[in-house]
Amino acid sequence: MIRVLLVDDQAVVRAGFRMFLDLADGIEVVGEAADGPEAVRLARRLAPDVVCMDVRMPGGNGLVATREITSGADGTHVPAVLVVTTFDLDEYVFGALEAGASGFVLKDTDPDDLVDAVRRLAAGHGMVDHTVTRRVITEFARRQPVGPVDAPESPLTPRELDIVRLLARGLSNAEIAEELVVETTTVKSHLGRAMAKIGVRDRLQVVVWAYRSGIADPGRNA
Q: Which residues form the HTH luxR-type domain (predicted)?
């Protein structure tokens, strides 16, 4: 059973998400919060697998809450955070990605897509709403400083680096496989090992790492 915590300052939004998620097999909404501080408290007490986080809340910043929840500083269970927002290129979205969010969907997303996003994050697969994936990655890349040429040697193999760079350009596993002329399963295997080496839990945070470290080139993402 996938345990979900809903965070939004609007009760009607939480009610709608609860209805969609409670109807889905294998998903249970275990709590609701109306602001960031309450979300942090409930995340620590309830240990959800996924937190659906609104980042623009007058009662408490969801970006700060995301950073606290994903830091694991208190040694407790670290859930995946799914940012749910009204705007596809909201300033808060990029801050949330930097804070450790694992996924991003729009509030008007199809209920089935919301359920799919929760399942993907629970399984360790970060995701961004398919309608804005490349736009978000491109804009995020533009905001990141390019790492120095003489940056410390990467822990990744040359093939893993190739895959990470293509992932940072917004390519899917199938597109990466086609680009490198390998099987999709090979891409998944290399990506899994890369994630373990750099200490991230999902694809989206691999992209964040790639730009922070200078592995990915923002100039190739247009």
A: 149-214
110-160: pLDDT as tens digits: 899 899 999 989 987 776 655 555 666 666 667 665 554 444 567 899 999
User: Do residues 163 and 176 lie in contact, with contact meaning Cβ atoms separated by under 8 Å?
Assistant: yes
Q: How far apart are CA 184 and CA 164, in angstroms?
A: 14
Residue closest to 60 by CA, chosen among 100, 18, 7: 7
Domains of the chain: 2-131 (3.40.50.2300), 147-220 (1.10.10.10)
Q: 4 or 150: which carries more pLDDT confidence? A: 4
pLDDT in tens, 77-123: 789 999 888 766 566 677 777 788 888 888 888 899 899 999 989 98
Q: Is residue 66 a contact partner of residue 81, using CB atoms and an 8 Å limit?
A: yes
**What contacts 6, CB < 8 A, 6 or more positions away?**
14, 17, 18, 21, 29, 31, 32, 33, 52
The SS3 call for residue 39 is helix
pTM: 0.76
Contact 170, 134 (CB under 8 A): yes
SS3 content of the chain, % helix, strand, coil (to 5): 50, 15, 35
SS3 (DSSP) at 73: coil
pLDDT at site 108: 86
Sheet holding 103-106, edge to edge: 27-33, 2-7, 50-53, 80-85, 103-106, 127-128
